[in-house]
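Notes to self after the call with IL:
- keep both proteins in one doc
- input above output, always
- annotate only the second one for now

Protein 1:
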Amino acid sequence: VFNDTYLAVAFNVSDKIDFQELLDEGLSQIENVNITSSFDLVFDPLRDIQSMISSMSDTALDVFNQATSSNLTSCPFVDIYNKTTMMEPWKLHRTEDLTPYIIRDNFGNATSYERIGSEDSGTYLNRVYNAAGVCSASSNCCIQATSTPPATCTSNPLESCDYGENCVFPCSPLKLAIVEGHAAF
């Protein structure tokens, strides 16, 4: 109030701030509306989408586990993950501390299933499933036991290798599928 005049009247905005009548009118129009059923119109499609995503996630996990549990002679992978252990694969319960196979570029050694430092899950999977190759012939195929490639390199066919022209890596496609499947999950 200024000089016995309401400011709303002086500025000609009384209809803009007198909202109680409009509010009451609006509330009376929606008092018989079932809000729950109205929300269901939104929630039902969202639930359907969530169900579809869960189904896709389960399918992706099944495909991932086909690669991690292939248990082939040259790729003896026997791990089965769930949604939790897939995100933190070093937490998967295993009966052994080391891989049952030699790791490529690891000087003829297996590798630990323990997490190394703060490696992320993708790096971990890339390391653990990086199985050494096998010799396809006895010449020019061996384990590189030092950081310098050997002058002569011979092994028996089908022995583990990580160096030489006759060293083939049959597990590489599986490792790639595991690493890319994890990244897509």
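Protein 2 (the one to annotate):
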Amino acid sequence: MGDEKDVKVVEPASTEKKDDADKGKEEKAPQPLATFGEIFSFAESGRTKAYLAVGIFFAMIAGLAMPASIFYFARIMGDISAIGEEGLGPILDIIYALMILGVVSMVAETLMSGFLETAATDMTLNLKRKWFQAVIRQDMAYFDLQDVSGTATIISTNGAKYKKGLSKKLGSGVQFGCTVLAGFGLAFYSSWRVTLAVLAVVPIMAATTGWLMK
């Protein structure tokens, strides 16, 4: 009889431990990432959407400035050899053209940062407001289970990450993406055979670099 009592006591304890372990696994399950629609859903006003669109447009212009300068410099290389015959006239034209491209790039990057930063600020404020509204709609049991003192820190920290992603990271991603695409287009336009040969070597270079970095 004593053994049967021991068995009865042990079984519920082991069951409780399994339940606790299952709950711990459920709590540690990774949260799904937000979709692009959910990320940009906080652009509620027309002004914010316009700022976002204009900022992305200037990010594309800034990304195309570097391939444009390379394309122009490649076309006027023959004029440099004519300095002895024509003087410094062709060189001055090259300098003025590169200065214009530099000014266009600077203005585009400045406007990109300004518009995207403004749009990101408005969207972050909307995120914090909706987050706070969702928190205060919870019942009393929610505040008994959750750490209420850390809610403000969570909102502030995630809001800063959200703003940085929509301003700097978004602008840089669009800018460098346009630079890469335009660079590949320019390379294939200039010499598609050489470009394919270089692309065939890129995986070997990447693998070698990764091996050396270990």
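Annotation: Residues 1-18 have pLDDT under 50 and may be disordered. Residues 89-136 form the longest helix (48 residues).
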